[in-house]
Amino acid sequence: MSGASDKARFYLEQSVPELHELAAKKIFSREEINSITKKRSDFEHKLNARGSRPSDYARYAEYEMNLESLRRKRVKRLGVKTTNHTGERRIFFVLDRATKKFQGDIGLWMQYINYARKQRSNKKVSQILTSVLRLHPTKAELWIYAANYAMEDRGDITEARSYMQRGLRFCKKDERIWIEYARLEMIYISKIVGRRQILGLDDQRDQQEDENRIKELNGDVVALPAITAEDIDPHKRSSADVDQEALEKLSASPALLGAIPTAIFAAAMKDFKDSNKLCHQFFDMVAEFNNLPCTAQILVHLTETMHAFAPGDPETLIRWIQQPVIGTDISSAGFPTNFGVALDRIQTSFKRLESSSAVPNILRPRTILEQQIFEWLLSYLKYEDLDPDIRKVIVMTLRKVWSRFQSDIELDPSGREPEVSSIISKLQAGGIHKLAELARAWALRTWPDESERFFQGTDT
């Protein structure tokens, strides 16, 4: 025990000059200094005694963070000059001791990394990441975190890709790292697209195409290429011009067309033997980037792949139905056409489901698909600026899907009350009151003892 006390005293003595400075400059009162000393003494004795836990280190680090935050606020208010890095060094020291003693505790490592990241100490973050990844190479979440840090804080796609590729060597069978690797590439594409829009490169390309069409109409005019001083002397180009030229060339690059996320998807499918679940996860992730030019092309490829090995899966079919309208604004001129394509796919999906030999019991998958179509269609009714004609079409389609769903439930009504009750509540919330009342009346006839369930969420 004396050894633990000696260690605690040694660490406490190191903070004496700091405490003297805080007292001398009246940043903290004498009572507050005594309180800080006592608190640190309690923590140090706990940490250096047998039986210390990770939570003891975490609380100590949290206490020092709060103390340092208070010190900075008072220094700013009082307008005094102090040594700014003492508190930061102490916090790093506590967390470093914590991760050395409890190397397997990921929570402590993340607290350490997040604090260093908050202090914008990129060199320290890199050192910590190197240490934790060396100790825990099979933890996919750490490789994902490191890649996101490289992309978000450092803006380094090369380093981010390196983390992901190294992570795949150790975590090849973890679905998350494949999904997040593809997401990283989608984020990179979105950054490039955003920068092109800021520079107006897309607008320039459209304008050039218009000018070319006008020149083609003027057949009696010979168009000569415009020559600038920069064409004669390339050294006159500024670095911004070089960046702009690189972005223009990148527009025709396979990377900007989604080739890398598609390649990641293909590699993942080989490792997971055409996992339908993983395919759905890829689709949902890509659909989040609904404003990118390459999204539609990638989603078409994903739906084709899903249909190839799971044509009768309701999860596959609902995504195939939704695919034409993903990324299309409801107020755009193209929405009615794309929405019409999606509605046509509903009937086709039921036909595919019924003809699929891979589905032994067709009733259950069919009702799952019907419920998913309900949720998808109802999601559009919340938009106030939705075209009235499209709203009418949605209501008509909901009636047709309900009729099909009702017929399927009547074939096997046992235990289906919660599903029916959920749809009635959603119809009511979506403002489809007539259909909700028809559904409720049928449900009460089918399950007369469950009246309370079917009236939940109403004013009756």
Automatic annotation (TrEMBL):
Subcellular location(s) per record: Nucleus, Nucleolus
Q: Name one GO biological process term.
A: maturation of SSU-rRNA from tricistronic rRNA transcript (SSU-rRNA, 5.8S rRNA, LSU-rRNA)
> Predominant location of this chain?
nucleus
The reply to whether Transcription regulation figures as a keyword in the UniProt entry is no
Q: Which UniProt keywords apply?
A: Nucleus, Repeat, rRNA processing
Q: Membrane spanning segments where?
A: none
What range(s) does the U3 small nucleolar RNA-associated protein 6 N-terminal domain occupy? 12-86
Q: Name one GO molecular function term.
A: snoRNA binding
Q: GO cellular component annotations, sorted alphabetically?
A: Pwp2p-containing subcomplex of 90S preribosome; small-subunit processome
Q: Which SMART domains match?
A: HAT
Q: Which InterPro entries match?
A: HAT, TPR-like_helical_dom_sf, Utp6, UTP6_N
- Tell me one Pfam family matched here: U3_assoc_6
The UniProt similarity line reads: Belongs to the UTP6 family.
Q: What is this protein called?
A: U3 small nucleolar RNA-associated protein 6 N-terminal domain-containing protein
Tell me the organism: Cladonia borealis
